[in-house]
Amino acid sequence: MKGEKYLFVVSGPSGTGKDTVVANLLKKHPEIQHTVSATTRPPREGEKDGINYHFMTRTDFEKHLAEDQIVEHTQYCGNYYGTLRSEIEGRMALGIPVILVIEVEGAGNIKRMYPGATTIFVLPPDMEELERRLRNRGTENEETIQRRLKRAETEIANSVDYDEHVVNVQVETCADSLYSIIQFRLKHGKDE
Ligand code: 5GP
């Protein structure tokens, strides 16, 4: 599909800091936009509907699925997460670079649907640092932390299929690496 090179998929284990890195990138480069996913997860403190996610009930989410308004979705730690078609296809057509921050299964599905998209995996410096960041965030209970850490190991092991990898040692530097990748792909990526 025309415009696939404008799609950038960013994944990384929970707690790796990918959202902070992407937020830093978007602040410095407002010509790049990001998608707002749909989820059935309850909002965390400070999260706003339509900004962080489109928060939905399971019934609502399943209705969107049945109506083919969601291009990829997954169940992650007991909740649905999905990318709305309306969040990506218009921007692809207009040539607006757009970033999806989604987990690995969704990234694989996007890459199969839009082979011209670029997938980028954000790695933590090491597993100890990942656990420290996840705990410092203070948003999850112990059971969820353990589930997320277990899932992180599998995700890292399967990340070889990504087009690009960056290590988040320091937010600014990592955001700059992401920007270099985006610039390169926009210049040299295939556009259909
Ligand atoms: P969190 O609950 O921490 O906000 O997100 C949990 C995981 O779901 C993260 O890895 C996040 O990137 C992923 N995620 C968020 N939105 C989507 C989406 O639309 N599709 C998929 N496949 N994963 C998503």
Automatic annotation (TrEMBL):
<dbReference type="InterPro" id="IPR017665">
    <property type="entry name" value="Guanylate_kinase"/>
</dbReference>
<keyword id="KW-0808">Transferase</keyword>
<keyword id="KW-0067">ATP-binding</keyword>
<keyword id="KW-0963">Cytoplasm</keyword>
<dbReference type="Pfam" id="PF00625">
    <property type="entry name" value="Guanylate_kin"/>
</dbReference>
<keyword id="KW-0175">Coiled coil</keyword>
<comment type="function">
    <text>Essential for recycling GMP and indirectly, cGMP.</text>
</comment>
<dbReference type="InterPro" id="IPR008145">
    <property type="entry name" value="GK/Ca_channel_bsu"/>
</dbReference>
<dbReference type="InterPro" id="IPR008144">
    <property type="entry name" value="Guanylate_kin-like_dom"/>
</dbReference>
<comment type="similarity">
    <text>Belongs to the guanylate kinase family.</text>
</comment>
<dbReference type="GO" id="GO:0005829">
    <property type="term" value="C:cytosol"/>
</dbReference>
<feature type="coiled-coil region">
    <location>
        <begin position="127"/>
        <end position="155"/>
    </location>
</feature>
<protein>
    <recommendedName>
        <fullName>Guanylate kinase</fullName>
        <ecNumber>2.7.4.8</ecNumber>
    </recommendedName>
</protein>
<feature type="domain" description="Guanylate kinase-like">
    <location>
        <begin position="5"/>
        <end position="183"/>
    </location>
</feature>
<keyword id="KW-0547">Nucleotide-binding</keyword>
<dbReference type="GO" id="GO:0005524">
    <property type="term" value="F:ATP binding"/>
</dbReference>
<keyword id="KW-0418">Kinase</keyword>
<feature type="binding site">
    <location>
        <begin position="12"/>
        <end position="19"/>
    </location>
    <ligand>
        <name>ATP</name>
    </ligand>
</feature>
<dbReference type="GO" id="GO:0004385">
    <property type="term" value="F:GMP kinase activity"/>
</dbReference>
<dbReference type="InterPro" id="IPR020590">
    <property type="entry name" value="Guanylate_kinase_CS"/>
</dbReference>
<dbReference type="InterPro" id="IPR027417">
    <property type="entry name" value="P-loop_NTPase"/>
</dbReference>
